[in-house]
Amino acid sequence: MANITDIITNLETPTWLDTGDNAWQLTAASFVALQSVPGLCVLYAGLVKKKWAINSMFMSFYAFAMVLICWVIWAYKIAFGEYMLPFAGRPGPVLTMDSTIGQSSLPSANVMQNYPQATMIYFQFVFAAITLVLVAGAYLARMNFTAWMIFVPLWLTFSYCVGAYSLWGGGFLFQLGVLDYSGGYVIHLSSGTAGFVGAWWIGPRLKADRENFQPNNIVLMMVGAGILWVGWNGFNGGDPYAASPDAGVAVLNTNIATAFSMLTWTAMDIIFYKKPSIIGAINGMITGLVVITPAAGFVAGWGAITMGFFSGTIPWLSMNIAGKRWRLFTHHVDDCLGITHTHMVAGLLGGFLTGIFATDTGVYAFGTTSGGGAIMGNGRQVWVQIVGALFVIGWNVVWTSLIMMFIKYVLRVPLRMSDEACLIGDDAVHGEEAYCFSDDNVSGLVPTLTTEMRANEKMTILHGRDLEEGNNGSSMNSPGKENGSGDGEIKID
């Protein structure tokens, strides 16, 4: 009987368990989960046209669920398991009681945590999930949902897990000394790169949607933005893997950089457009969150302010100058929500600035020994950060392209919706509408059969008939992309 009592005691309160660390880690993970569901779901739904609210939420919702199932069956061990390759662990399931109730460890990184493995598995899952949700932001309003269903597990396996193992799980970039506190490279640079590359493969939205993509609910968008900002406390505060002093520093720096970035972006809008914009302020908030992520617990408060200034200016220039004037973005890469600018540019910037502003105190408090960044006399760290960024960008360019080609040419699944579906939106793709009012006397709130018939008539004219006004039926196809580049404007009167 005594033996059974000892077993029960060891399972309930093992000697390695720190209940404070465990409680904070589960809380931080829940904060990050809320960033995706409902945070980014409702932010996306408010930012797109009304006809795409359901589809944008569903792409995020699906990714969250699919990533979890893949994560526990094979993906977690690729990212955080035992060594197999310099950039990947050995795949396998984490579904038995023995594999989840014991003490958490990252074997390739040779570190252990004072809570069960189940806590670490869930914490790392929510990071993987939000990365796919961020990628979706670049593909909205035209990606074939079936193609997205296939894309999610493939990109998680061959892209995200490789970055996570290389930088966090004990892989070659971890051994090299690349600093990425909470995912500036693993999450934001990778998702931004995949968004940019994938948007090229899928092709653009309809021309009418690109020219007029008025957000349908800015209040809803603001709710999502608020959840995202507050949820980031778990995003960065959870990555010391303990309720440590450095976790508090990370949370404070996260909010400092975000606030300064938002204010800087707003100032840029006032200077150049003469009006402050709430959508612009949200973009500035996001770039601030992204840029501080690789540096959160490494930098001092003045470093966070400096990084917030750069995140409110350089991505602003990228989005408002390059994004609106460069032919690459205006004709070839239709990044629907600007993920390239808010995550790829800001993630790259944050990783580079980490190499400059990281302090030795912050680095040591995190448990590493790189000695800080250039301000501490360690100029090598800047070059190490550049090497890490080049690997993440290069890997994602190649593997996002390979996955897109596999879906399109091997599986024969179109990457892009038909033009008819793009014109109608949620009702054509899901048979649902976001705002389901019961008052039949209020016209225009839900699609009618007449609306769909008129849309189909317009598509028939577009693909084969000359319009009386002299429209010569310009082609909607673009070489190297899915059918429908959006060159012909379509309107429902």
TrEMBL record:
The chain crosses the membrane at residues 23-45, 57-76, 121-140, 147-165, 185-203, 215-235, 247-266, 278-296, 302-323, 344-366, 386-407. GO terms for molecular function: ammonium channel activity. It is found in: Cell membrane; Membrane. Residues 464-493 are annotated as: Disordered. Coiled coil: none annotated. It holds the Pfam family Ammonium_transp. Keywords: Ammonia transport, Membrane, Transmembrane, Transmembrane helix, Transport. Residues 23-435 form the Ammonium transporter AmtB-like domain. PROSITE patterns: AMMONIUM_TRANSP. The keyword Membrane applies. It comes from the Eukaryota. Residues 471-480 have a biased composition (Polar residues). GO terms for cellular component: plasma membrane. It is a multi-pass membrane protein. InterPro entries: Ammonium/urea_transptr, Ammonium_transpt, Ammonium_transpt_CS, NH4_transpt_AmtB-like_dom, RhesusRHD. Belongs to the ammonia transporter channel (TC 1.A.11.2) family. This is Ammonium transporter. It comes from Friedmanniomyces endolithicus.
